[in-house]
Amino acid sequence: MPLYTQWTPNTAVNTLVSDETGEQSVTKLALLPDGSTYYTWFDNRGGGYAVYIQKLNANGVPQFAAGGLLVSNNPQNSSLVDWELIADNNNNAIVTFTDIRAGGTINPYAYMISPTGTMLWGANGVALSDSINSFQPNPKVVQTSDGNYVFFWRIGSGPQKLALQKLNAAGVKQWGTSPIYWTSGTNENYDWPAIVPSDNGSVIVMFSGYTGSFISPANYRIYSQKVSSVGARVWNATQDTVYSLGRVSGFYTPRLFSDGNNGAIYCWHDDRNSVNLTTGYVQRKNSAGAILFPVNGTAVSGNTTNNHFTPMAGYMPATGETYVVWQEANSGQTQWGFYAQKISSSGVRQWGDGIPVQPLGTDQVVAYNVVAKDTAAVISFSQSAPANTNIIKAAKIGTSGAYLWSGNIVIASSVSSSKIRLNHIIMPASGMSVVSWQDKRLDNGGVYAQNINWDGSFGLVGVVNTGIVAQNFELKQNYPNPFNPSTSISYSIPQSGKVSLVIYNSLGSVVKELFSGSQNAGTYEAKFEASGFASGIYFYSIKVTGSNGTDFSDTKKMMLIK
Questions:
Q1: d(CA 68, CA 559)
Q2: What is the pLDDT of residue 3?
């Protein structure tokens, strides 16, 4: 199996993160300040599930060993619960997950991994809880504005409660040996913890509350609270009620997103009118705790004949607006679609009943995300295909609701295979997105990723240093070849010098200068985008004037077929 060690423009291949024997599952993705990306997953290549991590630099080149770096092989249940990965301001990875190392019940642990793969909180991490006999799933973590880390998870049953703990950069607990426990004081269960950072070292948390059973909950509510840097409740003595109308399934996970301005965006769906139709809703609160949208949320659509499931949100600080995407389905759930909406700063829908990114039909969108930059949103989604397989698609939508990429929707992975989960980050400066997923193209699951540039293209942009050491002067054959509409050209220079990389047509005329200037020793990748060029034979030529007087030149042929 070939190992593509950079962002590839070939979406029929994608960038391999790890695809070892067995299953790589429950994948996570996090963006570092330097443009690198961390990937974590559960991996049963050795039998039981272990936790692995890989890091790709900004050019998509793996930084740890092939197949990933082992984080923990402590004993794990055969069934997995949710967990969390973030990257901090020092380019470290913070991972929190559960296992049964302390006995037969899962408990949460936290690890910090440096950019070079060092386990900074010890080989076995930090045990977050002092109670080993209670079932403790779904730990979450954020880095606070003062450089610490707050963890939030669920504990026990009958009734369920929540726990909070804070670690400093050295991995030392800041809120005592025992975590801070949140209990209802009644028979109300607390569930589905979520957390985002706020100001002055504080965090905003969200969770569900209900009586009865997980299968048939009653009196369902969605709560929120701001917690100070010392663990105190800020907004009031208990918690604020974001939603209180009761008609939500206990199996459903509400979603919480940062608004990038120390506030939070809340997403959920419910059947508040008891008409057997579900509608998605969105709420926003600022850092002071003020509710900015109507009480109990703004509906993502005014359509009253279809279902609107599982909304996901991305906030646009430049305009104060919120982008939302969701699954659309008819009343019988025999036709499925995928829609987008923009909501104003006061909670008013801007695009009617939503934009049909994928109109109602037989293909279902099974996983999706939306991220915002400047005044546009980039949407990624996994669309079902024949024989229980999926392909990954993406679109960029502007503030008017217009598509901004050629062809409207691009295909980020054309491999027809079973794909599970979909993660999506966007780089604030360049606007390049990275999506990752679990992919069963070879066996029970591997981890694959694809970059999507701000212009909707794939692969490396411009001329970038791949990080590979250059031993000799070399101009490599472009890949792919033949190509349409873009191809990548790689070259190596073992010493610094002046470099010229030029494209010629078959008549010998210069049609594109890819680079002209000084470069340090290294291996470089250049992308040639030929959307505006005619089919035919082209040549690319390099000339290097080395710093120690050694010169190099070479020319190769390539073919554009449209």
A1: 36
A2: 41
Q: Residue 53 CB: number of other CB atoms within 10 A?
A: 23
- Reference 51, options 91, 16, 115, 97; nearest CA is 97
Tokens 């659509």, residue located: 301
Between 463 and 360, where is the model more confident? Answer: 360
CB 224 within 8 A of CB 205: yes
Least Cα distance to 24 among 56, 63, 50, 61 occurs for 50
Q: Which of 59-63, 421-425, 465-469, 545-549 has the highest mean pLDDT?
A: 421-425
Sign, CA torsion 464/470/472/477: negative
Least Cα distance to 379 among 456, 437, 301 occurs for 456
CA neighbor of 321 nearest in space, from 393, 397, 251:
397
> Distances from the Cα of 333 to the Cαs of 22, 250, 337, 358, 421, in angstroms?
34, 20, 10, 15, 21
pLDDT in tens, 1-48: 334 457 888 899 999 999 999 999 999 999 998 889 999 999 999 889
**How far is residue 363's CA from residue 381's CA, in Å, rounded to a whole number?**
12
User: Residue 433 above 80 pLDDT?
Assistant: yes
State whether CATH 2.60.40.2550 applies to domain 463-560.
yes
> Contact at 8 Å (CB) between 219 and 244?
no
Q: Any idea where the domains of the chain sit in the sequence? A: 463-560
Look at the block and give the residue holding tokens 């082992």: 70
Distance CA 169, CA 174 (A): 11
How much is the pLDDT for 531?
77
Compute the C-alpha angle 115/121/123, nearest 5°.
95
- Return d(Cα 354, Cα 356) in angstroms, integer: 6
The whole-number average pLDDT for the span 283-303 is 97
In 10 A of CB 361, how many CB atoms?
11
Residues 382-410: tens digit of each pLDDT: 999 777 899 999 999 999 999 999 899 99
Q: Which two tokens stand for residue 325?
A: 């995407």
Longest Cα pair distance anywhere in the chain, in angstroms? 83
* Residues composing the chain: 562
